[in-house]
Amino acid sequence: PFPCSECDQRFHTDNRLTIHVRDHHSGLTFECSDPECHETFRTNALMTQHLIKHVLPVECSNPECNDHFRSLRLMKKHVRNSHGAPTFDCFDPKCPRSYNSAYRRNEHYKAHHGALTIKCSNTKCSRMFRISSQMNKHFRTSHGAATIECANIECDHMFRTMGRMERHVSRIHGACTIKCSNTECDQLFGTKGQMNQHVQRH
User: Whole-model pTM?
Assistant: First the structure.
């Protein structure tokens, strides 16, 4: 072994002893090579470690990792690949859903498990909802203006949604397979009654 004459440390090689004496007992200081930085360090290794922060300013967000990166994007990619993406489980212990961000987890919780705090904006309706988008959809389909006409031209019904109109057509009018009895007319009808009403208008 090679003992240090200044302290109690011993080294396996003369080279390691020389480095130790230079770094710890020579009185030399190592100044950061960045012109805007005036920090000094006791050892060259500490100065080099410090210099990485100038070249690669973004430190890994994992406290157990000492890696540095040129950009936030590269750091996030490193975290996903090396440390695994954090998962945010639903607050409800019975719900199996998990998300890759706290924001998405919170939005899910409000929409599916939160308290019913939003009242329908129609004063005559007592329905309550967890989030405003649910209430808005309900309002459009239940209280909004009926602006969609029935696809059957003989029918005067109006609907708030296309889905409701299509259900009405299939239930009330059925497939329009009955041709007008007037040979000069090409219109089709779902029922004979509709066709007869139409014929009376000819």
Answer: 0.33
